[in-house]
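Fold this sequence, please.
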Amino acid sequence: MPENEGMPASRDCFNETVCIDAMRIYDSCSDKDCVEDIRVLFPAARQPMIDGATNVRMKDVSVITVYIDLQPIPFNKGFYSVDMTFFFDVTVELFGGPAACPVPVSGVSVFNKKVVLYGSEGSVKLFSSGQCPEEPDLSGGERALPKATVQVAEPVALSAKLCGGPCRSEPYCRIPDCICQRYGGELDPSPQRNNVYVTIGLFTIVQIVRSVQMLIPAYDFCVPEKECVTSSDNPCELFRRIDFPLNEFFPPRAGDQPDGGCGCGR
């Protein structure tokens, strides 16, 4: 099979065992969230366009960033709460009348999520070469925490609606300055004359990992087998190396899918 190319005939034929420092996954979970009716915040310069709209349609959504806070759970040793704050870039189309063309406008939506995962315990502190001796770590040897990671698939834009005034109670969340700068100004969370609410489909995988030393079998060093190809400044030469995109002109049928079109392939 292709995945076994370059591997020994038997997995018992490794050359030696080596100790590596790796990030081991102690616990993980996957989730599918239908995030309903979260408000889209717009800069002040765009709000008059929202106030003058009569209808709205969802166009696109993407994840800007995710802020993660990891805290140990008291009286439940080894478990941690992972608090995640998702910031979405949301693009909607505004309609101002039956004959008016839709106008795209972008804003920010915020979604908070919390999960509890097992991350084990550790009482060591990590020091490494390269640290500035004039800035020592004087924290007193507090317990080392694991790391939390979040993987997010491209979110799904489901729907949008326009509300005169707030449609629901909204917890306050300060938008970081680095995100506000993307939109040219502060994003006002206070209720407006018209407010836009969207529904987003979200797929996530959350993991808690720790740096551990593991003994693994080693087969050989990873020596590259492919030579580097020198790039050319000629754009036509680069274009000629691109394969013709047949799938763009002839989309595959359901029976041509690897899993037979049932969506259950692995």
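The radius of gyration is 26 Å. DSSP finds four helices and seven strands in the chain.
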